[in-house]
Specification:
GO terms for molecular function: methyltransferase activity. The chain has 182 residues and is an alpha/beta fold. The chain is 31% helix and 18% strand. The protein has a 7-stranded mixed beta sheet with strand order 3-2-1-4-5-7-6, with helices on both faces.
C-alpha cells in the first residue's frame, strides 16, 4: 500500500486522529527538518507515514538517533517497515519519555495542535520540553493563519517563536513554527 493510500484509508477510518486529508508535502517536511544535524538526538511526534521522517534522515541523522511517536498503530507498522533502526513508539505525544536518559536536541511535531484545547496543547508541549535540552527547538507545522500554540500555552512555558514563509507547495499551504524556551 502506498503512503498516500494508507494515509487516506486511516483518515477515513479515524478522522478524529488524523486532521489532514493528505500527508505533509516534501517541501514542508524539508523546512521542518532544516535545523537537524547528524550529531543530534531527535524525536518526531505525529510521524504519520514518514514524510518528515524521510527529511530528517536525509539531513544525515543516523536512524538510531531518531525516536518516532505515533498514536495510529497502522502508521507505526508502516514506519517500522520503512525505517529500520529508528525507534517507533505507539503512544500519544504527551506520553513521550526519555527512555535512554539522553535529552533530545529537537522535537519535530506533526500533531495538529491548532484546534486543540489549551490543556491538551500544554500536556504535549510540556512532555516535549521535559525531555529536551534547555533552549532546544520545538518545531510545529500549522495550516492556519495563527501560531499553532495558543498565547496562553506560549506564555505558560515562556516560548518565543519564529515562523517560516508560507509553503504554497503543501496542500493545504502550511507554515512551520520553531518555538524555544528562553
Amino acid at each position: 500500500m502506498s503512503d498516500l493510500s494508507l494515509f487516506v484509508s486511516q483518515f477515513i477510518r479515524r478522522p478524529s486522529e488524523i486532521r489532514s486529508v493528505i500527508p505533509t508535502g516534501r517541501a514542508t517536511a524539508r523546512e521542518m527538518a532544516r535545523l537537524v544535524t547528524p550529531n543530534m538526538r531527535v524525536a518526531e511526534i505525529g510521524a504519520g507515514t514518514g514524510t518528515v521522517t524521510n527529511a530528517i534522515l536525509a539531513r544525515g541523522l543516523p536512524p538510531e538517533r531518531l525516536d518516532l511517536y505515533e498514536l495510529n498503530a497502522a502508521f507505526c507498522d508502516h514506519l517500522r517497515a520503512h525505517f529500520p533502526g529508528v525507534r517507533v513508539h505507539n503512544r500519544p505525544a504527551q506520553d513521550m519519555a526519555n527512555e535512554n536518559g539522553e535529552p533530545y536536541d529537537m522535537v519535530i511535531s506533526g500533531v495538529p495542535t491548532l484546534p486543540m484545547p489549551d490543556e491538551l496543547q500544554a500536556s504535549i508541549v510540556g512532555a516535549a520540553l521535559s525531555v529536551m535540552l534547555p533552549g532546544a527547538p520545538f518545531v510545529q507545522i500549522t495550516y492556519g493563519p495563527l501560531p499553532p500554540l495558543s498565547e496562553n500555552v506560549r506564555r505558560h512555558f515562556g516560548l518565543q517563536h519564529e515562523r517560516s514563509r508560507r509553503i504554497w507547495a503543501n496542500l493545504p499551504p502550511a507554515q512551520v513554527y520553531t518555538f524555544r524556551r528562553y
